[in-house]
Amino acid sequence: MFKSIVVGTDGSDTATQAVREAVDLASAVGAKLEIVSAYAPVPAGRLNEERRQAPEDVQWAINEREDVDTTLEAAAVVARGAGVEVEVYARQGDPADAILDVAEERGSDLVIVGNRGMTGAKRFLLGSVPNKVSHHAPCSVLIIRTT
Q: Which of 84, 85, 107, 138 is deepest in the core (most CB within 10 A)?
């Protein structure tokens, strides 16, 4: 049925709910889970300042991806706990583009997204992750009710 399922997360409660649903489905059908999170570039000056203020033994860990890496690892722990094979992807840029890129690169069969941002007038605004993914995915899309 499904061999590769992509799900995006930003660490929010609604995204975590979508991850849990994706884990359940991947576990049920024996699919690999591809977990994606996007991040915005951080100015070099801010990174340098944070490194200067941090203790020497943790300065190496301060980078533009540190928050997204933590978010991805938390989601991966949930998947591994359910016995699901998982791969994580941190991508700079737009969240919807990141999800779509990974789905295409991995030849995924399904993308799972939460419905957050798809109610009321917001569903008509450009930039809505579930809206953009549902219109441009290279495979089937399952929209999970998270709100």
A: 84
